[in-house]
Amino acid sequence: MNAKKIIPLLLLSGAISFGAISCKSGLSDDDLESKIENALTGHSTVDVEVEKGVVTLSGTVTSQEELTNLENVVKTAGAKDLKSVVNNLIVNPPVGNTTAPIIVNSVDEALNVGIKDAIKDFPTVTAVATDGVIKASGTLEQAHVQHLKMVLDKLNPKRVDLSGLTIK
Fold first, then answer.
1. Residue 133 is part of which domain span?
2. Which residues are within 8 A (CB) of 36 and not within 5 positions of it... i.e. 6 or more apart?
3. Which of 116, 163, 110, 104 is nearest to 135 (CA)?
4. Residue 116: half-sphere exposure toward Cβ, Cα within 13 Å
5. Do 33 and 78 have their domain in common?
6. What is the pLDDT of residues 104-141, one digit of tens each?
7. How far apart are CA 41 and CA 56, in angstroms?
8. CB 3.0–4.6 Å: which of 7, 50, 68, 97 could bond 29 by disulfide?
9. CA-CA distance, 157 to 105, in Å (whole number)?
10. Top-confidence residue, 6 or 51
11. Same domain assignment for residues 126 and 89
12. Are both 140 and 119 inside the same structural domain?
């Protein structure tokens, strides 16, 4: 090849290289973080941090499905600008099962049978059910009060009355 053909060829390849480099969007970490936060609008329990193109998600979600969906939203929003996603989200289901109603056990006979088993580990406590309410009396160390309450609550009475207990 002669010089007349090489010079235009070099200029053309330089222009193509420069054009390819300038086409890359290369969002800054701050811009990428803003873009992802906008895509996650409505998820106030999720925090987003971006460092060198690596997106880190932290916070809580209510289900595994929500966790997976949010990660996919991040990957879609950051598409060509993110390097990877570090998912530190924690699944924290809502308190109480809103789909299953709590059935209150107001049958005193059934409650009294359950009470005998429930308080077997608390020899200084007596309890009886009247009109669906469990009333406990006796003495108990402070460290065991919460455990007793939980055990009696599992019987699903209308309520548990511990006012008759003497706490040591």
1. 108-167
2. 48, 50, 55, 74, 77, 78
3. 163
4. 5
5. yes
6. 777 888 899 899 999 999 999 999 999 888 999 999 88
7. 16
8. 50
9. 5
10. 51
11. no
12. yes
